[in-house]
Amino acid sequence: MSFDPNARLDPGQVEDVRGSRIGGRGLAIGGGGLGTVVLLVVYLLMGGNLDSLVGSQDPNSGSQPQGSTLQQCNTGADANRREECRIVGYVNSIQKFWTGEFSQSGQRYEPAKTVIYSDQVSTGCGLASAQVGPFYCPEDKQVYIDLGFFQDLQTRFGARGGSLADGYVVAHEYGHHIQDLEGQLSSGAGQQGATGVSVRTELQADCFAGVWANHAAATGFLEPLTQDQIGQALDAAAAVGDDRIQQKTQGQVDSETWTHGSAAQRQKWFTTGYRQGDPKGCDTFHGNP
Fold it and tell me: Distance (Å, rounded) from C-alpha 228 to C-alpha 60?
């Protein structure tokens, strides 16, 4: 098990819109690339497709799903049994950590809701397809996740999966929320390459995910992490490295087009955050990333 079975969950931090009907235009499937939607920070680009995020700008269009199982996510025991409850548990833990971290520095943390969707979803940043993977939208300050991505992480990208692989993904997206709150997301879009601003931004989010992992048990939601679980997170980070994805999809690696960092870079910065447990150690913008 990963979660303290007696921990009390707050499902109100997560919204389930699976099954909703979304109005507006259909998706425009195109080549895309970072910068197509300037403020949208995407966790994973499988073959580009940021153009497919631009569509209806009304995040409130459509109807709510017929029913959601989030009301069954009440305890850590539920998180150990159900995938959507596991996401609730991770969101609760991550936000509790950052709330305390901001408070210690005299700041106020602004919570971000996570939206679970399927196929496509209307956001403050436009109409998004599940093809882009989990992402954070600064326009509405929400994290969006299609749960099918966690299966893709194993079947398409070769990760071994595991609970903390999921936790790493969620914590990475909340890392972008932290960057947003600190005013670090308004620049760098489109600056690609192994040492570009885009890669450095993504690596800092990986580092922030590692910082949370260091303190995860202290939030009261998770049991102490094992080395095997940390290995799950590191394995997931490597699986979505730009070099791994390019090798799988193109048969060759071009570091000049990287947007998220190599497998080694991503593992390095998650490990840095985990070992130091301090966001101040996550300065990826100076020196060699």
Answer: 41
Given a cut of 70, the residues of the chain with pLDDT beneath it are: 1, 21-67, 186-190
Spatial separation of the C-alpha atoms in residues 226 and 143, rounded to whole Å? 27
Structure tokens at 133: 């993977």
pTM: 0.86
Instruction: Give the integer Cα–Cα distance in Å for 28 and 256.
Output: 26
List of long-range contacts for 226-231, beta carbons under 8 Å, 24+ apart: 228/162, 229/2, 229/162, 229/163, 229/164, 230/164, 230/274
Predicted pLDDT at 208: 98
Helix (H) or strand (E) holding 123: strand 120-123
3-state helix, strand, coil in the chain (%, to 5): 45, 10, 45
* Phi-psi domain of 47 (left: phi exceeds 0; alpha: psi -120 through 50; beta: other): left
CB-based contact 93:209 (threshold 8 Å): no
Q: Are 144 and 121 in contact (CB under 8 A)?
A: yes
Instruction: Determine contact, residues 67/41, Cβ cutoff 8 Å.
Output: no
What contacts 145, CB < 8 A, 6 or more positions away?
Answer: 87, 114, 115, 116, 117, 134, 169, 170, 173
Instruction: Give the number of other CB atoms < 10 A from CB of residue 75.
Output: 18
Number of residues that make up the chain: 289
Amino acid at 109: Y
